Amino acid sequence: MSTSATDSPAEIGTADVVDDELVEAFERLIPQLSSSSPPPSRQHLEALVSNADTVLFLARIEGRIIGSLTLAFFPIPTGTKAWIEDVVVDDAARGYGVGAALSLAAIDEARRRGAKDVNLTSRPAREAANRLYQRLGFHQRNSNLYRYTF
Ligand SMILES: CC(C)(COP(=O)(O)OP(=O)(O)OC[C@H]1O[C@@H](n2cnc3c(N)ncnc32)[C@H](O)[C@@H]1OP(=O)(O)O)[C@@H](O)C(=O)NCCC(=O)NCCS
């Protein structure tokens, strides 16, 4: 796992292998992010970790995985899009800057890969998340968000 320094007590790195620890961490974290999405299977995590256009960031305190953020890249005619998705920090570790540290690591990586900006969505009800993103410099865009559900 590679690391980057931040002000938070967490060590931020990227997931390079899928092991029991990673599977168990997502079984613990995903219910704290979504009540409708099940935790990823080992196979799904393997597809994610081996995808060169997706970076799975992990935050650890004393070695234990306590947060995660996924950064996804895709090329479009006008450039390279970078999206942050599925940001979650374990309830017991919130309020110590771990979410900020994960987000800053993602911004650094997006800049390094040549994306011209970093995008994300966050429901208004996610008050802590919206405060965090605005504090870090994300600006709210005026656009309609659509979804076609199968
Ligand atoms: C959003 C989330 C990732 C932030 O993680 P975090 O490690 O607490 O983030 P930070 O400590 O960097 O900052 C979060 C902000 O919320 C506050 N906060 C969040 N949880 C808190 C808690 N339990 N106690 C006190 N403050 C808390 C922090 O003080 C900080 O406020 P500020 O920006 O006004 O200074 C985390 O709250 C979380 O996992 N929430 C549930 C999932 C979610 O909403 N994900 C975002 C999807 S878009």
Secondary structure layout plus pairing:
Layout: E1 3-4, E2 11-14, H1 20-29, H2 42-49, E3 54-61, E4 64-76, E5 79-89, H3 98-112, H4 127-136
Antiparallel strand pairs: 1-2, 2-3, 3-4, 4-5
Helix pairs in contact: 3-4
Short description:
Helix content is 29%, strand content 25%.
Summary keywords:
150 residues, alpha+beta, five-stranded antiparallel sheet, 5 strands, 29% helix, disordered N terminus, binds coenzyme A
Tally of DSSP β-strands: 5
**Cα Rg:** 15 Å
Class computed from helices, strands and strand pairing: alpha+beta
Stretches where pLDDT falls below 50 for ≥5 residues?
A: 1-5
Bound molecules: coenzyme A
Mean pLDDT level: 95
Given the structure, what is the number of helices?
Answer: 4
Apparent shape? globular
Strand order of the largest sheet: 1-2-3-4-5
What portion of the residues fall into strands of 2 or more residues? Answer: 25-35%
Order of helices and strands: EEHHEEEHH
Amino- and carboxy-terminal Cα gap: 37 Å
Largest sheet: 5 strands, antiparallel
